[in-house]
Write a structure and sequence with these properties.
- 2 copies of one chain form a homodimer.
- Chain A is of the alpha/beta class.
- The first copy, chain A, is built from 12 helices and 14 strands.
- In chain A, the strands form 3 sheets. Chain A has a 6-stranded parallel beta sheet with strand order 2-1-3-4-5-13, sandwiched between helices.
- In chain A, strand 8 and strand 9 form a beta hairpin.
- The longest helix of chain A is centred in the middle third of the chain and has 17 residues, at 189-205.
- The interface between A and B is large, with 55 and 54 residues.
- Chain A binds a DNA duplex through residues 1, 3-5, 13-17, 19-20, 22-23, 27-29, 32, 47-48, 50-57.
Chain lengths: 341, 341
DNA sequence: TCAGGTTGTGACAGCGATGTCAATCTCAAA
DNA sequence: TTTGAGATTGACATCGCTGTCACAACCTGA
C-alpha cells in the first residue's frame, strides 16, 4: 500500500501538502501541486478510504436496502439509477438485499451503522407502504418505490395514477370506446391509483367506466403468493358479445397472457384487439409479436431521484426536501395498439 | 457515536477488554464478559468499521463488479447468490455496475482499491471471455459467468454443454425423434457449448443431428446489437413437410416467439409441438400458456460459488483453488413438453 | 514455602488521513 | 527599511480500534 507519507517523502513535501493536493485544496502552489500530482500518478497512490472515513467520521458510501428489488427483473433499474446518481457525486453503494426477512434487515441496518453510511435508500419491489422498523438511524433515509405510512421519511414513487391515465388516454385517442381492463391484484396500491387514472381519462373522453370490464389478472392467495389468472380473465372479456376493442393491462405479464387468449380465440393483435401493457419489461414487450405498447415504470429515474433527495436531506445539495416525489410513467409506443376506424 | 471507550468507561474496564468481548476473545472472565456485553447492548454500541479496517488493514467488504448483470433480468441472481455467500461470512458487498464502460470500470477498480476490498467478484451478463484490463490488483479476483482468456483468474460458469445435453435428453426421453433447434447467436460461446451437448444427447439416443433443423433465433448486427428473429425461424421450421415434434430454444424469449409462431400456424403446445426453453426466467416461463419447461441458468449458485472460491484464494477457507467451476443447469419441468406415442 | 505456570486485564503505540494552528516567505504600501 | 496582509507549507494531535507486551492475581505440585 502506498500511503500519503510515501508520496510526501518521494515528493519532498509534508504529508499535509499531499493531502491538500488530493483534496483540491486551492492553497497549494501550482508548481508544487503539479509535481505532487505527477508523483501520485506515478506511484498509483489511492487514498485509503478507511483512514479518511475515520478521520472525517462520515463515509462516501450510501446504503441501498432492498426487499427483493435487486433480484427481480421488475425493478433492478432502481439499483442502476441509484448508482448513476451516486456516481455523479463520486460515491458508491453498499447493497443489502433482505429478501423480505426482518432479521436480515436488522442485521443490515447494523451494518450500515458500522459503515457510517452517508444515507440509505430503501427500495421495495412493489409500490407499497413500508414499515422500516428502525426508528433510531441517524442518517438520511429515502424510500424508493414505497412510502412511509407515518410520513416520517421522504419517498420517491412512480406516478401510478398518471400511468393509468396515460394508458387509457392513448387508447381513447386512438378511437377506442370499449376498453377492458385486466388489472393487478386489487389489494395493491398501484391498482387503486391507476384506477383513478383510468376514470379521469374515461371521463375526459366521455366514456363510461363499466366495472364489468375490469377484472383482476392476478389474485392474491391467502398465503401471500399470487396467481396469474389473466388468461382466463381475458377469455371472459373477449367472449362477451360486446367485446372490448382494447385491453389495458396491469403489467406486461398480463399482456402476455392476453396475447395467448387472443390467439386461442383467433383474434389478431392489433387488428381485432389492441393491448396496452404496463412496466415496459423489455424482455416481454420487445419479444411479443407484435411488440407491446406499454407504459414504463421509471425505475431508473426513481433510483436517481432518491439519491438527489438524499443529498438534500444531508444538506449537501441545495433544494427543498419534499416529502414525496412522483416520477411520471412514460408511454412507449410499439405495435400492439391500432387506430380505430 | 458510541465508541469502545464510552462502553469501557461505563463498564469500568479498559477499552481493550471491551474489544476482547466484541471479538469473542476467550481470554475474558465470564462475569466481565457478561457485564460488558450487557452494556454494549444497552448503549447500542456498533464497532466502527473504518477504524477496524484501518487497524487490521483489510476489509470485510467484497467488491462485485458487473457489466450489466445487476441490471438485466437475466442474471441479477448472481448478485443474490454472491450476497448469500457473503452473508455466511458476515461480509458485505460494494457493488459497481460498469454498463460495459471501460472508463467506469477503471474508476471502480480504483474505488475497490481505496476500500481495500477483500476480493472482487467480476460478473458478466453473458457467458463470455472477459478481459479485465487491470493487471495490478492485489486482491483475489473470481470471474462469474465469464472466464479468463489468459487463464489468469479462477472462474465460475454455467455448464452450458450439460445444459444443452439436458434439453435434448429430456425431449428424447419423451420419445421425440425430430427435434428442431432455435439457438442463440452463433457467435456466443454458449451456442457452441450447447451444440456439443445436443450432439452428445442425439448420439446417445441414436438420432442424427440435422443442421437444417438448427436456426439462429438471434442475429448479431454489425453494430453489436441483436435482433430477435425466432418467430421467423420457427415459422421456417414448422412449415417444413417433416416438421419437428419438438423445438429446443436458446432462451426463453425465443420460446415465447415459438409459441407465437405455433399460434399463427394453429399448432397447439404441447399437443402438436413440444417446446423447451433455456434460462428459466420465471417472468416468461410461468406466464406462458402452457407454462414453459426450461433449463435454468444457475445464477444464484454461480454467485455463491464465486464467493467460495474467493475465500479459498484468500486462504480463509480450506479447499483447492480450482481454475474453473462449471455449475450444472437443472431441468425445470412444466407443461410445454409432452410424451410422444 | 516457592518456582513456574495460567488467567485476566490494561497501558501504549500506531494504522493513514486531515483539522488546527503556527511558521515561513513574498510583496506592496507606508 | 519596516510592516502587515496574503500565500504556502508543515508539525502535531487525533479519529476508534486492536496487536504487543507487561503485570498482577491466582494456581499447582514439589
Amino acid at each position: 500500500m502506498v500511503t500519503l507519507k510515501d508520496v510526501a517523502r518521494e515528493a519532498g513535501v509534508s504529508p499535509k501538502t499531499v493531502s491538500r493536493v488530493v483534496n483540491d485544496d486551492p492553497a497549494v502552489n501550482i508548481e508544487t501541486r503539479k509535481a505532487v500530482a505527477e508523483i501520485i500518478a506515478r506511484m498509483h497512490y489511492v487514498p485509503d478510504h478507511a483512514a479518511r472515513m475515520m478521520r472525517m467520521s462520515h463515509s462516501s458510501v450510501v446504503g441501498l436496502m432492498t426487499d427483493a428489488v435487486a433480484t427481480t427483473p421488475y425493478s433492478v433499474d432502481i439499483v442502476r439509477g441509484t448508482q448513476a446518481g451516486l456516481r455523479e457525486q463520486s460515491r458508491t453503494m453498499l447493497i443489502a438485499n433482505t429478501d423480505g426477512d426482518r432479521q436480515q434487515e436488522q442485521e443490515y441496518w447494523r451494518m450500515f451503522r458500522a459503515h457510517k453510511v452517508a444515507g440509505v435508500v430503501y427500495a421495495t419491489m412493489y409500490h407499497r407502504p413500508a414499515d422500516l422498523g428502525i426508528p433510531d438511524f441517524e442518517r438520511g433515509i429515502v424510500l424508493a418505490n414505497c412510502y412511509s405510512a407515518r410520513r416520517s421519511h421522504s419517498s420517491v414513487v412512480p406516478d401510478d395514477e398518471g400511468g393509468g391515465y396515460t394508458q387509457a388516454r392513448h387508447l381513447i385517442e386512438l378511437g377506442h370506446r370499449r376498453i377492458g381492463i385486466v388489472s393487478l391484484s386489487p389489494v395493491l396500491r398501484a391498482t387503486v391509483l391507476r384506477g383513478a387514472g383510468y376514470r379521469t381519462a374515461f371521463a375526459e373522453g366521455g366514456l363510461l367506466y363499466d366495472p364489468a370490464l375490469e377484472i383482476p389478472g392476478f389474485i392474491t392467495r391467502p398465503d401471500g403468493g399470487e396467481d396469474l389468472v389473466a388468461y382466463d380473465a381475458a377469455l371472459g372479456l373477449l367472449r362477451r358479445p360486446d367485446r372490448p376493442t382494447a385491453i389495458i393491462c396491469g403489467n406486461d405479464q398480463i399482456a402476455m397472457q392476453i396475447y395467448a387468449a387472443a390467439a386461442t380465440l383467433g383474434l389478431s393483435i392489433p387488428d381485432d384487439l389492441s393491448v396496452m401493457g404496463f412496466d415496459d419489461m423489455t424482455v416481454i414487450t420487445r419479444t411479443l409479436k407484435p411488440m407491446l405498447t406499454s407504459v414504463a415504470l421509471p425505475y431508473f429515474e426513481i433510483g436517481r431521484t432518491a439519491v438527489d433527495i438524499l443529498s438534500r436531506i444531508n444538506g449537501e445539495t441545495e433544494g427543498p426536501v419534499v416529502p414525496q416525489v412522483q416520477v411520471p410513467c412514460p408511454l412507449v409506443v410499439r405495435q400492439s395498439c391500432r387506430q380505430l376506424g
